[in-house]
Amino acid sequence: MGKDVIIACDFASAEETIRFLDRLNKIRSxxxxxxxxxxxxxxxxxxxxxxxxxxxxxxxITSLKERGHKVFLDLKLHDIPNTVKKSMxxxxxYGVDMVNVHAGGGIAMMKAAREGLMLGAARYAEKPKxxxxxxxxxxxxxxxxxxxxxxxxxxxxxxxxALNAREAGLDGVVCSAHEAAxxxxxxxxxxxxxxxxxxxxxxxxxDQKRVMTPADxxxxxxDYIVVGRSITAASNPIEAYQTCRADFIG
Length: 250
Hints:
Number of strands: 10
Order of helices and strands: EHEEEHHEHEHEHHEHEHEHH
Oligomer: single chain
Radius of gyration: 18 Å
Strand content: 15-25%
């Protein structure tokens, strides 16, 4: 996996999701000519979250994989280690490309998640990436201190959660793009930073508190950006997607 834009498909149904993606696939799945060599252009990397997965079940993953999409299954597992291990074994069998847990579950839980995922994905040559959510991008210092009773600065908590994820053998973390550079300095450049809370300039922040543009996320060293409403709710989603890719990847 290299740098990429992941589209958050936060739709209510498979029908709505497929209809939206079919519009984008018109510009991404064609065969182009470059120096007299045929190059197949891949389809967009997509994120399937709780709403869509709970509404449609694993069939939505099968449909998207059959259409050539890479899939980030964003369910944020957080439970006792044995439960997470067994659940991740099920998810690994679906053929997803990326899946996540909450780092707040601790090192033992994250190790169990990796064990279960590898068991479930044993038949696949390319194993899925397992990443951990550090702190939600809707969480800020006030929420951490006043509601979660975590007294450490947000950046220190995120860094420690990232270190815990690396110790557990995970491939990276979900974090704000504001934290990507420091996580790379702390955990290494090969430790993935997957960054939601991405908005194009001028777009509404919605319920996100720590946001950044694709270009700024690139400058911070983010490996993947997750973009939802700035693409899916745009008046011209194709143009918005192309702008995100140009600003982030070049």
